[in-house]
Write a structure and sequence with these properties.
heterodimer; A: five-stranded antiparallel beta sheet; 11 strands; B: mainly beta; eight-stranded mixed beta sheet; 1 helix; globular
Chain lengths: 143, 143
Amino acid sequence: MTIAGPSGALHGGCHCGRVAIAVPGRPEYLNVCNCTLCTKLAGMWGYFPRSQVTIGGRTRGYIRTDLDETYLETHFCEGCGATTHWVPLRADMPDRMGVNMRLFDPDALTGIELRYGNNRDETPGAPRFHRAPTVFSAAGVTA
Amino acid sequence: MTSAETLDRADGGCHCGRVTIAVSRRPEYLNACNCSVCTKLGAMWGYYTADEVTVAGAARDYVRGDVAEPKLVFHSCPNCGSTTHYTMIESGPATKVGVNMRTFDPAWLIGVELRFGDRRNYPSGERQYYRAPCAFDGIGAKA
């Protein structure tokens, strides 16, 4: 359940209720990345400065080991398995984290641009996106 | 890794590799259900009978607590958080298993019909749909 507060903040969370997430407002856009990690975790990311996201409850972190360099740690709820967010691992990365917007009321996300980042094909010159952008529709999970 | 040449069998599994799933065939269709569990877990199901699915590794169980009579047990990897499959609480060799096809190579699923079941608005009874079906294009996580 997500409730839009008076400030425009959005409140979401995992399915079992152990993890709650609040973000300051609607993200600028949504991103469905096609890398193997994002595909398997089915993240639909919104990006926010770390200081603007509040996470209540305990999550477990996962750092992939299949790459030479890993930049982020994904988190999930140990109760229901829902992917909740990711945080950057390196200090020189931008002040930005990813929040899985699938954990928020889809109605609150209607109309936001939905992008399809291409990080599966990393050959030089590969397109930045794997599909043309669409607009998120609360009629269902377009992405 | 699977390929389009091996249409009759495939291996999937979570991102870190602790939970693997093998299925005997491509699914008849894919289903991106929009109920609260499927939305938050981001699952895209293929349906099998229990004797068609081989799971290895210890997955964590989740039974939703927000409905009076839950019927399903959702399974995810306790290390990386990937949702791998669901089983029926009362199960036998011929009972249905939902396999999260996001944990398989998308290229193997190109052309499979993708349906959009509307359990958000029609939680029981004959399945209704929130979008028209399409063919899974394998480029990325379309649903």
